[in-house]
């Protein structure tokens, strides 16, 4: 009978210096990886990533560029091989730093290097690390052009796709859209003021944002499974509560605007 590997959660990052070079660290003197490590009890992934980067490289002045998502792989064993007794879910973030001096304080990670972006994948030991970095590198994560027109267009494209996924993923989105259409029709019929229109726009934005947030949480929790963390169900309930609060606030605003005109 094959023993099921234990699961663990780790966090780390792709760290870029001002020259666009990437931080890579040595583990146990026999393998190379991006800086990362186990998430300790009570830590979130972002906090753990910054702590691990600091311990493995001495880099503590980190500016977050964006969340890079997660991937799974087995841990690296002694000698650089794959240790299938432990499967990691690794949360990764993209950082930039003005620091250049590398001073690792973790004895298990005795060396750190700044490496040219094109050489990183060849240096990394684990195939999954290589695959993840290559995928991220192909997206061109150089912070120097983070605000280029091309990047802005891509950002809007991602946002548009997100809205499309949101509208396809939940019937509530269409219910909110139908209610909004009815409210707009009433607003036109009663010729409401500009201030009242502004209140409706803000209320609608609040409701749709809360519903989109709730949908994202639902998708994320369902992917990792509710059993993955004891607080998963609480997270989903809090997100649903945010939708309810925003919907009640929008209903109150609608009542204040239209009830006096109807009656």
Could you describe the 3D structure shown?
The protein is 51% helix and 22% strand. The protein is of the alpha+beta class and 263 residues long. The protein has two domains: 6-145, Nucleoside Triphosphate Pyrophosphohydrolase (Alpha-Beta Complex); 149-262, Helix Hairpins. The strands form two sheets. It has a four-stranded mixed beta sheet. A three-stranded antiparallel beta sheet has the order 3-2-7. A hairpin with a 5-residue loop joins strand 5 and strand 6. The N and C termini lie far apart (74 Å). The mean pLDDT is 87.
Short description:
The protein has 263 residues and is α+β, with helices and mostly antiparallel strands. The protein is built from 7 helices and 7 strands, in the order ββββαβββαααααα.
Q: If helices are DSSP runs of H or I spanning 4 or more residues, what is the number of helices?
A: 7
Q: Please state the overall shape, judged from the principal axes of the Cα atoms.
A: elongated
Please bin the fraction of helical residues. Answer: 40-55%
State the end-to-end distance: 74 Å
Overall mean pLDDT stands at 87
Q: Domain count, please report it.
A: 2
CATH architecture name of the largest domain: Alpha-Beta Complex
Q: Which oligomeric state applies?
A: single chain
Instruction: Give the strand order of the largest sheet, numbering strands 1, 2, ... along the chain.
Output: 4-1-6-5
- Here the CATH topology of the largest domain equals Nucleoside Triphosphate Pyrophosphohydrolase
| SSE ordering | EEEEHEEEHHHHHH
CATH homologous superfamily caption of the largest domain: Nucleoside Triphosphate Pyrophosphohydrolase
Number of strands: 7
Which structural class do you get from the secondary structure elements? alpha+beta
**C-alpha Rg (nearest Å):** 24 Å
Strand content: 15-25%
CATH class of the largest domain: Alpha Beta
Task: State the low-pLDDT regions, or none.
Answer: none
Let me know the largest β-sheet: 4 strands, mixed
């Amino acid at each position: 009978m094959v023993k099921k590997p234990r699961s663990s959660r780790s966090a780390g990052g792709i760290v870029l210096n001002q020259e666009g070079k990437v931080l890579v660290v040595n583990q146990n003197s026999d393998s190379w990886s991006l800086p990362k490590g186990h998430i300790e009890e009570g830590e979130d992934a972002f906090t753990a990533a910054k702590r691990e980067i600091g311990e493995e490289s001495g880099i503590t002045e980190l500016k977050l560029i964006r969340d890079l998502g997660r991937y799974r792989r087995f841990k690296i064993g002694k000698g650089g091989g794959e240790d299938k007794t432990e499967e990691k879910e690794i949360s990764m973030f993209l950082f930039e730093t003005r620091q250049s001096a590398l001073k690792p304080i973790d004895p298990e990670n005795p060396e750190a290097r700044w490496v040219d972006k094109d050489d990183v994948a060849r240096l990394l030991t684990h195939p999954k690390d290589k695959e993840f970095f290559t995928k991220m590198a192909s997206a061109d994560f150089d912070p120097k052009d983070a605000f280029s027109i091309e990047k802005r267009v891509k950002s809007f494209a991602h946002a548009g796709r997100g809205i499309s996924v949101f509208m396809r993923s939940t019937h509530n989105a269409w219910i909110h859209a139908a209610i909004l259409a009815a409210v707009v029709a009433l607003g036109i019929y009663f010729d409401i003021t500009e201030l009242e229109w502004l209140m409706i726009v803000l209320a609608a934005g609040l409701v749709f944002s809360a519903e989109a947030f709730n949908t994202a949480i639902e998708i994320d929790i369902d992917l990792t499974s509710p059993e993955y963390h004891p607080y998963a169900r609480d997270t989903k309930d809090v997100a649903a509560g945010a939708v309810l609060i925003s919907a009640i606030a929008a209903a109150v605003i609608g009542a204040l605007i239209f009830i006096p005109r109807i009656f």
